[in-house]
Every structure is written in C-alpha cells, then in structure tokens.
Design brief:
Helices cover 78% and strands 0% of the residues.
C-alpha cells in the first residue's frame, strides 16, 4: 500500500474534483465557469500531489516549452472566456506533456479484466498500440 501525506491526499482530491469539473463543464456545452474551476483545481491539485518545485520542473523543462505553453495558454484562454478554443489548446498541450506516460497507462489498462479485453478488439487494438508507443523519454 502506498502511503500518502496529508497534502498529497488533499492534492488527489483537488485533482479529482478538477477532472470532474472539466468533464462536467464539457458536458454542459463548455460552461466557462465550470471549466475555469476545473482548470484551477486540476493544476493546484497536481502541485499538491508532487510538490511545487517538482511541478515547476515538470512544466518548465526546455523540451516541454511548446506543450506547457499550449496547456497553460489554453487555461488562460478559458479564463478569458473562450472555452472551446481554450479546451482544444489544453487537450493538445496535455497530450504533448503527458505522452511519455501513455505507454504505462495503456499497459496498466490492458491488465484490468474488462477493459483489457476491450482494448484487444481488432479496431481498437491498432489505435491503442499506436497511442501506447513511446519514442520519447519523459
């Protein structure tokens, strides 16, 4: 069992609520307020989970400048009131930032009983294999 500090537990809660508000904001036709709350909760929760210094080191690495600018630019665009454009920018930046983690996530999901069998279906398997490839390091 993984032991978490109290601040990491708070961070997990904030990140979870952030993802919920982002999803709910998209389901309600890109509601600006919900997306803004979700963005703020997600980024603050991430900093609680891994710490402020590691968060800054993760986002502001030299090879991740493009990804960080798209992600944080999308957050800014959502806060300024253009939710659809901002979410598109955020999603692109998110995939650029976290593409090194996708092989790990795909490998984990393939071991989950029901989801693993779904990922091995013919049409889905090729797509998941393409997403799960990693040609860059984290």
């Amino acid at each position: 069992m993984i032991s978490l500090t109290d601040s990491q537990k708070i961070g997990m809660g904030l990140t979870g609520f952030g993802v919920f508000f982002l999803f709910f904001g998209m389901m309600l036709f890109f509601d600006k307020a919900l997306l803004a709350i979700g963005n703020i909760l997600f980024v603050s929760g991430l900093s609680f989970v891994i710490g402020l210094e590691r968060t800054f080191r993760f986002f502001f690495q030299r090879h991740k400048v493009k990804a960080t600018s798209f992600f944080l630019g999308g957050v800014l665009v959502v806060l300024l009131g253009w939710p659809i454009v901002g979410v598109v920018l955020e999603i692109y930046g998110f995939f650029l930032l976290f593409r090194g983690f996708f092989p790990v996530v795909v490998g984990f999901i393939r071991r989950v009983p029901v989801l693993g069998s779904l990922l091995n279906l013919p049409g889905i398997s090729a797509l998941v294999d393409k997403v799960g490839e990693s040609n860059t390091m984290v």
